[in-house]
UniProtKB/TrEMBL annotation, chain A:
<dbReference type="InterPro" id="IPR036296">
    <property type="entry name" value="SKP1-like_dim_sf"/>
</dbReference>
<comment type="pathway">
    <text>Protein modification; protein ubiquitination.</text>
</comment>
<feature type="domain" description="SKP1 component dimerisation">
    <location>
        <begin position="118"/>
        <end position="158"/>
    </location>
</feature>
<comment type="function">
    <text>Involved in ubiquitination and subsequent proteasomal degradation of target proteins. Together with CUL1, RBX1 and a F-box protein, it forms a SCF E3 ubiquitin ligase complex. The functional specificity of this complex depends on the type of F-box protein. In the SCF complex, it serves as an adapter that links the F-box protein to CUL1.</text>
</comment>
<comment type="subunit">
    <text>Part of a SCF (SKP1-cullin-F-box) protein ligase complex.</text>
</comment>
<dbReference type="InterPro" id="IPR001232">
    <property type="entry name" value="SKP1-like"/>
</dbReference>
<dbReference type="InterPro" id="IPR011333">
    <property type="entry name" value="SKP1/BTB/POZ_sf"/>
</dbReference>
<dbReference type="InterPro" id="IPR016897">
    <property type="entry name" value="SKP1"/>
</dbReference>
<dbReference type="Pfam" id="PF03931">
    <property type="entry name" value="Skp1_POZ"/>
</dbReference>
Automatic annotation (TrEMBL), chain B:
<dbReference type="InterPro" id="IPR017451">
    <property type="entry name" value="F-box-assoc_interact_dom"/>
</dbReference>
<dbReference type="InterPro" id="IPR006527">
    <property type="entry name" value="F-box-assoc_dom_typ1"/>
</dbReference>
<dbReference type="Pfam" id="PF00646">
    <property type="entry name" value="F-box"/>
</dbReference>
<dbReference type="Pfam" id="PF07734">
    <property type="entry name" value="FBA_1"/>
</dbReference>
<dbReference type="InterPro" id="IPR050796">
    <property type="entry name" value="SCF_F-box_component"/>
</dbReference>
<protein>
    <recommendedName>
        <fullName>F-box domain-containing protein</fullName>
    </recommendedName>
</protein>
<dbReference type="InterPro" id="IPR001810">
    <property type="entry name" value="F-box_dom"/>
</dbReference>
<dbReference type="InterPro" id="IPR036047">
    <property type="entry name" value="F-box-like_dom_sf"/>
</dbReference>
<feature type="domain" description="F-box">
    <location>
        <begin position="1"/>
        <end position="43"/>
    </location>
</feature>
Length: 167, 386
């Protein structure tokens, strides 16, 4: 499957590359968008190949990253529009989706998107219970009940749980 | 389980405000280790300071209130902008001290006997400074002293500066002594004297690695005011320009320095008539001073001579003002309308100090883990036993 990205249609004479997700979907991306990712830029500099296979990014996540890159590569858009795109981009996304997204930005080295997503994740986390955090990050509680109680006791005042959310 | 690289993980956590981070220490041992790491704590402070520059104060910091006739401290956060309830801090490092300044979430508290302490109200850690054996208040003449707290990023050190001056009106002589305390070394030492006369008892304003005071030229020949900066790394003094308009045209009788939105501000009070607040957009650049706003007695915000700018919410064009040591008002710069914040259970009159919410640990800064302090405590104990 070849999907053209919205901002760079095939009619344009611009150079483009094909990026393949781990589940086999292929995306046609303009080179100007691809090089906003430091890793993709390196790959393109090193080899002539116009097909890049990413073994650890799934199609949904990749589609989002590409939408981001294409928007930011569009010279016709003002910085203000790009900023409001960034806001829209992360708003309403599930924490789970953001987790995969932030990992993809790390693999692809897209620093500004990494910061945007990290900020959104932090915003969601700040009002959550510890139990929620453990679930979302799949973390085993390795404290003994006594040790955990002791830690909570030390910063007891930070534990005003009334407004904290578990979902 | 998702394998999260540690850099990515730190990118996320460093954007979480300090209070939830304290809670998240109990997620697991490895989370605690990450959050307690001094390098992470510095990264977190930088991120929170950046947030303030982007005019988001929610969760980034709090106002610490100290009642005038009350020995307790209160903390006020801005989660709700129009109705707030100060929460009483159940931890009190000093029953008689008053806040002089704050930097990166650390507060400087001065007590009447000249004792000082550093305090992180969020983690509740405090550190008593060794006594300063400086000029005595009993010297002949008028005694003034000012202090200030700042941070030296290059050496990751917190420094307290104390300037003491005795002015003798009979022979117009001025004795001046300046001392710097380094938290890293946990000791005081004397530095180059403050080259001007300190006329007002105000804490130094920390910005861009330097402490700032407003002062008058020495020795009282002309009463031109100056802004003096003391670079805390080099310990050199420098002069900063005042806005052209105020040095040429009408000279305001009272001026105060402050920080808003990461910039130095100068509040000029024209008695009970008007308050002009100037902001220096580019640090040290004379032509970058702009008049941010002006409140006159006709605006009905309150007694203008008691207004003090606290925070600036750029996106809403609103400035938070403290009024008459009693209340806070959101002042809209465009409409010039004020909205009082309803506060329940506050001290009758108070002074307030903005403080970042940070996890800075004082004992991590002291170079030998505070053994000086331990020795001193032991010595103090022996003395009191005698």
């Amino acid at each position: 499957m070849v999907t053209t990205d919205e901002k760079g249609p095939l009619t344009a004479k611009k150079k483009s590359v094909i990026i393949r997700s781990c589940d086999g979907d292929e995306f046609l991306v303009s080179e100007s968008a691809a090089v906003l990712s430091t890793s993709l830029k390196k790959i393109l500099e090193e080899k002539e190949d116009r097909l890049i296979h990413l073994s650890d990014i799934d199609n949904k996540t990749l589609a989002m990253v590409i939408a981001y890159l294409s928007t930011h590569a569009d010279d016709g858009l003002s910085d203000d529009l790009k900023r409001s795109f960034d806001q829209e981009f992360v708003s309403g996304k599930e924490f789970d989706v953001l987790k995969y997204l932030v990992l993809a930005t790390d693999t692809l080295q897209v620093t500004c998107l990494c910061y945007t997503v990290a900020k959104k994740m932090a915003d969601i986390m700040k009002n959550k219970l510890v139990e929620w955090v453990r679930r979302e990050f799949d973390i085993q509680n390795d404290y003994t009940p006594e040790a955990e109680a002791e830690i909570r006791r030390l910063d007891a005042w930070a534990w005003d749980d009334r407004q904290l959310e578990d979902d | 389980m998702l394998d999260m690289p540690s850099e990515v993980f730190r990118e996320i956590l460093s954007r979480v405000p300090a209070k939830p981070l304290l809670r998240f220490r109990s997620v697991s041992k490895s989370w605690q280790k990450t959050i307690d790491d001094p390098i992470f704590i510095r990264l977190h402070v930088d991120r929170q300071l950046l947030k303030i520059q982007h005019s988001s104060i929610d969760g980034v910091g709090h106002l610490i209130l100290r009642g005038d006739f009350d020995t307790r401290f209160y903390s006020l956060s801005f989660e709700s902008l129009h109705c707030v309830k100060p929460s009483l801090l159940n931890h009190n490092p000093s029953y008689e001290g008053s806040p002089v300044g704050s930097c990166n979430g650390v507060m400087l508290i001065s007590e009447s006997k000249g004792n000082n302490l550093l305090w992180n109200p969020l983690t509740r850690e405090f550190h008593r400074l060794p006594p300063l054996k400086g000029m005595s208040k009993k010297s002949r003449g008028l005694y003034h002293s000012v202090s200030g707290l700042g941070y030296v990023s290059a050496t990751n050190d917190y420094k307290v500066v104390k300037i003491a001056q005795v002015f003798d009106p009979r022979d117009r002589s001025l004795k001046s002594e300046t001392f710097v305390y380094s938290l890293k070394l946990d000791s005081w030492r004397r530095i180059k004297d403050f080259p001007f006369r300190i006329s007002r008892l105000r804490g130094g304003i920390f910005l861009k690695g330097a402490l700032h005071w407003i002062s008058s030229t020495m020795p009282l020949k002309s009463m031109n005011d100056l802004i003096i900066g003391l670079d805390l790394e080099t310990e050199d003094y420098c002069l900063l320009p005042l806005p052209t308009e105020i040095s040429r045209l009408e000279k305001p009788p009272a001026k105060h320095l402050g920080v808003l939105d990461g910039c130095l501000i100068l509040s000029c009070y024209y008695q009970i008539e008007r308050l002009d607040v100037w902001l220096m957009k580019d640090y040290g650049v004379k032509c970058s001073w702009i008049r941010l706003f002006s409140v006159s007695a006709q605006d009905n915000i309150g007694a203008v001579e008691t207004l003090r700018p606290i925070a600036y919410l750029k996106c809403k064009e609103e400035v938070l003002l403290q009024h008459d040591k009693k209340e806070f008002v959101w002042f809209n710069l465009e409409t010039k309308l004020g909205k009082k914040i309803r506060m329940n259970g506050r001290p009758t009159t108070f002074s307030s100090q903005f403080c970042l919410a940070s996890l800075v640990r004082l004992r991590d800064i002291v170079v030998d883990g505070g053994s000086n302090n331990a020795k001193r405590l032991a010595r103090d104990k022996m003395n009191s036993a005698n």
